Amino acid sequence: MTVHDTRTPDLGADQSDAADPAPAPAPAIDPASDPALDERAPSIADRAALFGVLTGGWTAQCLYALAKLGVPDLLAAGPRPVEDLAAECGADRRALRRVLNAVTAAGLFRETAPGTFALTPVTRLLCRDATRSSRPSAIMFGEEVYQSFGAIMHTLRTGEPAFEQLYGKGFYDYLDDDPQLTAVFSAAMGNAAVPAALAGCDLSGLGTVVDVGGGDGGLLGKVLTRHPAARGILVDLPEAVEQARAKLTAAGLDQRVTVAPGSFFDPLPTGGDVYTLSRVLHNWDDEQAVAILRRVREAVPDHGRLLVFERLEGRTPDPARAAQAQLIDVLMLVMLDGRDRTEEEYRGLLDAAGFEVRSVRAAPLHSSSTESVLEATPR
Ligand SMILES: C[S@@+](CC[C@H](N)C(=O)[O-])C[C@H]1O[C@@H](n2cnc3c(N)ncnc32)[C@H](O)[C@@H]1O
């Protein structure tokens, strides 16, 4: 007797068997051997999700190229035909159309009439003059960061930053040799929100704050705006401080700020009441992080304080933000010698440099940044 598999009709079966009044029960089927029954087997949706992830880098590179060519800026005032866009940004019309088709299908642009494209709220962020524009990040991610992730195998095999293998020097040495790239990096960092945990810090009666590795001056500007009697010193690499100088001058704070070009591995300006290190230590390995902290320890007076703003490993409550934060940790891995650390690990570094941690405060929930603040005093 032919035993029919009830799920896959056997078209060649002997028809006389169909009349068999009492067919034997079908043998149990092992779900693992049959993808249609195995709930662990990938579904079409699983395949689509994976394909979306595997091709996500292509979409990102399309957006990078469009941002670099200034296409979002050309669309800032409203929809425009692809012919005009191609002529103005110097692209091949057919190639531009195909790239725009792809990002439109992904929901990132709109096609308002055949061949006429418009921004969406997401891609409006790629315009140069958008508030906290993402254009510098798109360019940075699409160039050195993209190349470094392309060489991630080197990092996985050796534990060393792929960036150094590709470019022959450390990321910050490379940046400091290239003013244009420093401008892009500083703008990208400056467009990240100032750590929201700053709002919870008691800075009443503040005299002088020294922001070490202060980038484009976003944090210092915020502190000085809130505390009109305070003064500030910003320390960063020579190329980077120029960005800060311009930004703080534009904010009308230049009379209250001293810009100090230099390295935080060298002696730091003394005379501050509060020293800040925001998103600096996670760029460095333990030895270098302690070396930076020791320079702060040498400079800070007995009554002074140090505020360290960093994301604490395992302490990002929002799962969507946590996934992004873990990717930033991999970014540190391929680009730099740094990493995100736990609260205990930061306590250890601060202790090794002669500081005592007085408090640790998390970023407010649902704020635009994930950094906590560790407040420490000289021991
Ligand atoms: C990740 S950014 C953080 C910038 C800013 N504190 C913030 O929170 O947005 C790290 C900063 O460290 C600066 N930096 C790197 N190496 C440095 C060095 N040796 N001395 C001083 N600053 C340095 C970089 O130029 C950059 O501005």
What does the model show?
This protein is of the alpha/beta class. It folds into three domains: 51-124, Arc Repressor Mutant, subunit A; 135-188, no CATH class; 194-378, 3-Layer(aba) Sandwich (Rossmann fold). The chain has helices at 15-18, 44-54, 56-69, 71-74, 82-89, 93-105, 121-124, 135-150, 152-158, 162-167, 171-176, 179-190, 218-226, 238-250, 286-299, 319-335, 343-352; strands at residues 80-81, 109-113, 116-119, 208-212, 231-236, 257-261, 274-278, 305-310, 355-361, 372-378. Helix 3 packs across helix 8 (135-150) and helix 8 packs across helix 12 (179-190). The radius of gyration is 28 Å and the shape is globular. Mean pLDDT is 88; it is low at 1-20. The structure holds S-adenosylmethionine. S-adenosylmethionine (SAM) binds next to helix 13 and strand 5. S-adenosylmethionine binds at residues 172, 189, 192, 213-215, 218-219, 235-237, 240, 263-265, 278-280, 283.
Summarize the helices and strands and which ones pair or pack:
Elements: H1 15-18, H2 44-54, H3 56-69, H4 71-74, E1 80-81, H5 82-89, H6 93-105, E2 109-113, E3 116-119, H7 121-124, H8 135-150, H9 152-158, H10 162-167, H11 171-176, H12 179-190, E4 208-212, H13 218-226, E5 231-236, H14 238-250, E6 257-261, E7 274-278, H15 286-299, E8 305-310, H16 319-335, H17 343-352, E9 355-361, E10 372-378
Helix pairs in contact: 3-8, 8-12
S-adenosylmethionine binds next to α13 and β5.
